[in-house]
User: Fold this.
Amino acid sequence: MPTQDPRKNNRYKASHRENRIISRLIDAQGNPLKVSDFYGSNVFDIQKAKEIPEKIRKELINVSETSKTLNPEHAEIVATAVVKWANDNGVTHFCHWFQPLTGGTAEKHDAFFSLENGKAIEKLSVSQLLQGEPDASSFPNGGARSTFEARGYTSWDLSSPIFITEGPNGKTLCIPTAFVSYTGEALDIKTPLLRSVTNLNEQVTQFLNLVGEDDITNVNVNVGCEQEYFLIDKSFYYERPDIVMSGRTLLGSSTSRNQQLDDHYFGAIPDRVMGYMQELDFELYKLGIPAKTRHNEVAPGQFEIAPIFCEANLAADQNQLMMAIIKSVAHKHNFVALLHEKPFAGINGSGKHVNWSMSDCKGRNLLDPGKTPHENILFLANIAIVIEAVRRHSKVLRMSIASQGNDHRLGANEAPPSIISIFLGETLDKIMLQLKMGKKLTDPNINESLNLGASQLVELEKDNTDRNRTSPFAFTGNRFEFRAVGSSAAVGFPISILNTAVANIYKESNAILEKDIANGTSVEDALTKLTKRWITNSYQVVFNGDGYSQEWVKEAEIRGLPNLKTTAEALKVLINPEQIKFLIENNTFTERELSMRYHVLTERYVTLREIEFTTLMGLVNQHVLPSAITYKTQLAQIIKSQKDVNLECSTELEIYKKLDFAMASLYANSHNLGEALKSIQGSEQEVADHIANDLMSQSEIIADYCNEIEKIVPNSCWSLPTYYDMLFIK
Ligand code: ADP
Ligand code: MG
Assistant:
């Protein structure tokens, strides 16, 4: 029932939304199409393009799988086929779709429509398809370019398919591209990722050849991203300037029931959310994004989606696209999807588990232990190399996931801490320990089956990797899971760092193996020696216990593991010559590209925090204090009228005093923050450190006073949607 109270109206609206029904695709007989019938219909499929001769088709597939370049004449033929496909599908515009350093995606649309001698025609030249020239000075470049030499180029990435996006009233052809400066510096996230994949492929292929697998010509990096997000009703969203401006609530008192009951995780999905997830899957399938799982997450209002893994560069593109579609489909259902790492204080934040593995040209997963891992020395060597890579380059890995949003999650007692460690699981840990001690490798034999005590249930094999949710980097059966990545992150960056870290250790391993084998050591012995060397060197990074505990923070310090707590601290790694040497030597980044990233990311950190502070102070003045004043005035009137007739009013006085104290403290702290912001000065690093180490805690004190006031003030005086509204009303 609509009332005079806008907050009540919003609650009513949110709880009475109609489910959005979309028309399903049907065949000629009116039967619903299966997913396999329309999967990838908005993606340009080389296999189906009849205009492309078989020979060129093969070349193109080879190019996309092996990072070779395409013959320019053949590119023309491909481009012509793309244009025809786009026209057949009623596309009006095209764009080069790329990932600037902001972490989002960028697109500049051009119409196919053109005028030739005053006559309207549809046209797209091949060169336009292959290369674009957006104004690079409008994108963050960390001082690499000035406006007068602003040319930047986007160039077609053949390994990621061209796709069509559908707007309400038309379609756009999107061409995945890399974005580089006039002088060839990477201004984007994709270019270094592609370089890192090429390098890892070369190093691991060489490694396999060295150990006698001559028929291996190519190694792929595979990635599958589990994406977490929150959904809140749209009517609350626009009433919360903090979420609109910064993606998270800057204040808000938690509800009496957060996630203590653990009843949301894997719980029944509410109808309205299910309708949303079904449309989301539908949109993803058309774009050839293989959405596979969907479920409730730990916190109320939190959900997860994961696609089937694929090649790293494609997975990174698909994750960017998926994040955009998660948001746009949510709007259609009158939801807003929050991808921020910590939208609500006091309850679980959102991460993105990046599942990562390598497979060879025969499709074999190099991280698959097989049935008897203790007899599989090649597998153990691959694992030990990754462990050494993570230990040696842990600071750079930590840096790669640094963002202001992720700072609230890492180490906040509910997500892995900012200490990078590896969870191996019992089986693998025992084998690695045997190796380290120089013992004969035996089956640790802990793979018992679980007795469920009910004979009608099938016996389940106990998962020999266990499920340790507290580890930032975990081995999960046949892959590693980089779990400390933030939910809103562009995964291309952490993946490029991980690939390079691993490639670097393969490179060293290759040199060692080559020498040993040349000296007459058998391959088996050389591999065993190598594995022992790496595991001995890096075992301190292995931790199978509870990563959320305070004891671990202390123990990690004793073990000498770095703990870079804030983004401001972590980003400094980007300009530390000793730390970044391997990134340059392995050709993933140039020194200038890294310093560019340092400036862009530090500036971004500072700007985003400043936006948060200003928004918070605005909320204090426009909402919290006015609400408090309204209630205070009511209380004063009541107290006065009761005193006038000699009635006791000790409770009212008590509340009044409590409120008055909280208001005065809030006002003073908010004023101080404003003054501190005005007088902020120093180098960008000094400013970032000052924000991270001083101003952040000040803003948290302000939030605490706001929350105290929220708890005192009656609902009828409170003007902001509450945690209760946003988390529980759907
Ligand atoms: P869980 O939540 O149990 O870890 P999910 O099914 O939600 O698992 O997500 C696991 C993700 O890992 C999926 O994206 C899946 O495709 C991906 N994955 C599975 N095997 C591999 C592999 N060998 N390499 C990379 N990613 C993988
Ligand atoms: Mg999952």
In short: The longest strand covers residues 219-233. The chain has three domains: 39-183, 196-604, 605-728. Residues 222-224, 226, 293, 306-309, 355-357, 365, 478-479 surround adenosine-5'-diphosphate (ligand 1) (CB under 6 Å). Confidence is low (pLDDT under 50) at residues 145-149.
